[in-house]
Design a protein that fits this description.
The chain contains 19 helices and ten strands. With 516 residues, the chain is mainly alpha-helical. Helix 1 crosses helix 2, helix 2 packs antiparallel against helix 6 and helix 6 packs antiparallel against helix 7. The radius of gyration is 22 Å and the shape is globular.
Length: 516
C-alpha cells in the first residue's frame, strides 16, 4: 500500500472512530452521555469505569460538529480582516465586519462563549474524576492530558477574542462551582498565564503523535500543546518563550513542511508531517457527516447548480495583490475569474455567483469537490452540512515556523527569522532573502495562512495595524469597491462584545467590554 493510501486509510479509521464515539455519546441516554448541554455530569452513575473516561473524552469534541463552532462561529470575527468579505448580504454579519454593536444578541456569535465554557466544564470534570478511576494508567494519563489541552485551547480562543488589558474572561478552574457566575479576570494576561499552566500540564501528559494508535488520531498530542504554548506566548509578547516552545516543536523531529503547498490541503495528507491540530472531518460519518462545514461555507453560492455551496468569506483584491510575483501559494489559495479548476470530475472556468459581493473564491478546501462523483466518499450528500473528507487545519507546522520567526525578529531584529521564513518561501517557489523584517514576516504570515483559522484579523489587532488597514476600502478582481472603509477604534474594537446572554445570565456579574 502506498504511503498516501495508508494515511488515507488511517484517516478514515480515525474519522469512523470519532464519529462512532460521538454517536455513542449522544445515544447513551439521549442526553449526551448523562451530560447536560452545559456539560455537568451525573456523578451517581458515571465516572466508574475506563469506558466512562473514554466517553467523557469524546464528549469534549462534541461541539466541534456544531455549525457555529468550527463551521462558521468565530470565523465571523476572522471575516473582519482585509482578506475577505462576507460574500452575501447578511446584515448581522455585516455589522460584525463593520464593528457595529447592533450585532450583539444576534445568533451568529452569541453562543461562542457558552459552547467553549461547556467544553471547559467537561474538561474540568475529567481532570477531577478520571484520576480516581481504576483503569490503564497510560490511557488515563493521555485522557487527562487531552482535557488539559482542550481547556487551554478554548480558553485561548476566548481570551484572544474577548480579553484585553482592561478585562480578561472568567477563569473557571476544576474546583470552581460552575453554577455560580464568575467575574472576569482582571486582564487578559491573567488568562494567558492560566492557559500556559494548562498547556504545560497537557504537554507533560500527552504522547507524541507518532506514538498514538491510528484510532486516536485527532486527539491532542505533545507537540500540539507546545505549538499552542508558543502562540499564547506570542500573543502575550513573551517572545523568548514563544521562540522556546516553537523550537521544541521544530527540534522534536516530528514535523516538516510538505514539499508542495497545494498538497497540504489534500485529504490524503490529513495526518502528514505538517499536521499539528485540525478539525477532524468526514462527509458521511453516522449518515450526517462530521466536523467543520467551512469547505461548503466557502464554496460559491449554489456551486454552479451542482452543489449547495453557501458563498461566504470571499477573498479580496487586497489579499490577491499581496502575494509576490511567482508565489505558488496565490493560485493554490484563490480562484479568480477565468481560472480553470476541477469540480465533480469536470474542468470548469471560474465564474462568480450573480449575487456574490466578490468575484474571487478561496480554493484551499476545494480538493474533495474535484473528483467525479465525490458524494459521499469525499463530500457530504447534504449541502446544508457541507463537510468533506478534508480535515480543516487549525494549526500547521508552517505557522510554528512563522511564530518562531516573529519571535526571533522581535528579540534580535531583522534577519533573525530568515531561516524559518526562507523554508516557507522556498516551498512557495520564491527566492531566499536575507535581513527580513517584521514587514516581511507579516506578508509571509498573511500569504501562508490566508483563509484559515490562524486569524488575520487578530494578527492585525495585535500588531497595531488594524486601524490603518480598515481605513481603506476593499476591492474585487475588477478593481470595484466591494466594501467601504471602516472605522476601527483600537480602544474598543481590539476585542469583541461579550455575548449579551452571558451578561444577562450572570445577573450583571460579567461585564461588557468597554465601549461596546
Amino acid at each position: 500500500m502506498s504511503s498516501s493510501a495508508l494515511k488515507n486509510k488511517i484517516m478514515k479509521t480515525n474519522i469512523k472512530y470519532l464519529a462512532i464515539a460521538a454517536l455513542a455519546f449522544f445515544a447513551s441516554c439521549n442526553k449526551q452521555l448523562d451530560i447536560t448541554p452545559e456539560g455537568s455530569p451525573s456523578a451517581q452513575n458515571f465516572w466508574k469505569t475506563e469506558q466512562d473516561a473514554i466517553k467523557a473524552e469524546a464528549g469534549m469534541y462534541e461541539k466541534y460538529n456544531e455549525e457555529d463552532y468550527y463551521g462558521r462561529g468565530m470565523f465571523w470575527f476572522i471575516n473582519a480582516s482585509d482578506d475577505m468579505v462576507t460574500g452575501r448580504n447578511k446584515p448581522e454579519a455585516d455589522n460584525i465586519k463593520n464593528f457595529n454593536r447592533n450585532y450583539i444578541g444576534g445568533g451568529y456569535t452569541e453562543t461562542q462563549w457558552s459552547m467553549r465554557y461547556a467544553i471547559i466544564k467537561r474538561a474540568n470534570d475529567i481532570i477531577i474524576n478520571v484520576p480516581n478511576i481504576s483503569m490503564d494508567e497510560s490511557l488515563k494519563k493521555q485522557i487527562i492530558g487531552d482535557a488539559y489541552f482542550n481547556a487551554g485551547l478554548v480558553y485561548f480562543q476566548l481570551a484572544a477574542n474577548y480579553g484585553n488589558d482592561k478585562a480578561g474572561v472568567p477563569i473557571v478552574t476544576p474546583e470552581t462551582d460552575a453554577s455560580v457566575p464568575v467575574a472576569r479576570a482582571n486582564n487578559v494576561n491573567e488568562n494567558y498565564d492560566y492557559i500556559i499552566s494548562l498547556l504545560l500540564k497537557a504537554a507533560d501528559n500527552l504522547p507524541y503523535f507518532s506514538e498514538m494508535k491510528d484510532t486516536d488520531y485527532g486527539k491532542a498530542h505533545k507537540t500540539a500543546a507546545w505549538a499552542y504554548l508558543s502562540k499564547v506566548y506570542l500573543y502575550k509578547k513573551d517572545y523568548t518563550n514563544a521562540a522556546k516552545y516553537a523550537d521544541m516543536v521544530i527540534s522534536s523531529g516530528k514535523h516538516d513542511l510538505l514539499t508542495n503547498f497545494v498538497d497540504v490541503f489534500k485529504a490524503a495528507n490529513n495526518w502528514s508531517t505538517e499536521y499539528i491540530w485540525s478539525v477532524v472531518c468526514t462527509p458521511n460519518g453516522g449518515g450526517t457527516g462530521w466536523g467543520s462545514k467551512l469547505p461548503g461555507v466557502m464554496l460559491t453560492n449554489k456551486a454552479w447548480g451542482i452543489y449547495n455551496g453557501w458563498g461566504y468569506y470571499l477573498p479580496t483584491k487586497e489579499l490577491y495583490d499581496s502575494f509576490e510575483t511567482g508565489d505558488l501559494r496565490r493560485e493554490a489559495t484563490i480562484l479568480k475569474p477565468g481560472d480553470k479548476f476541477q469540480f465533480f470530475g469536470t474542468e470548469r472556468t471560474f465564474t462568480k455567483d450573480g449575487g456574490a459581493t466578490s468575484n474571487y473564491q478561496f480554493k484551499k478546501y476545494m480538493e474533495p469537490f474535484s473528483y467525479a462523483n465525490p458524494i459521499p466518499t469525499h463530500v457530504n450528500p447534504n449541502g446544508d452540512n457541507g463537510t468533506t473528507d478534508l480535515n480543516v487545519p487549525l494549526m500547521r507546522y508552517a505557522e510554528v515556523l512563522l511564530i518562531k520567526a516573529e519571535a526571533a525578529i522581535n528579540l534580535n531584529g531583522a534577519g533573525a527569522g530568515d531561516t524559518e521564513l526562507n523554508k516557507i518561501r522556498k516551498r512557495a517557489g520564491l527566492l531566499a532573502k536575507s535581513g527580513m523584517s517584521l514587514v516581511d514576516l507579516k506578508r509571509e504570515r498573511r500569504n501562508e495562512l490566508a483563509g484559515e483559522w490562524a486569524d488575520r484579523h487578530r494578527d492585525l489587532v495585535r500588531w497595531g495595524d488594524a486601524q490603518a488597514a480598515y481605513a481603506k476600502p476593499l476591492h474585487d478582481f475588477d478593481g470595484a469597491v466591494i466594501w467601504p472603509a471602516r472605522n476601527f477604534n483600537p480602544q474598543v474594537h481590539d476585542v469583541w462584545a461579550v455575548p449579551q446572554r452571558e451578561i444577562d445570565n450572570s445577573s450583571g456579574v460579567i461585564k461588557q467590554n468597554a465601549g461596546w
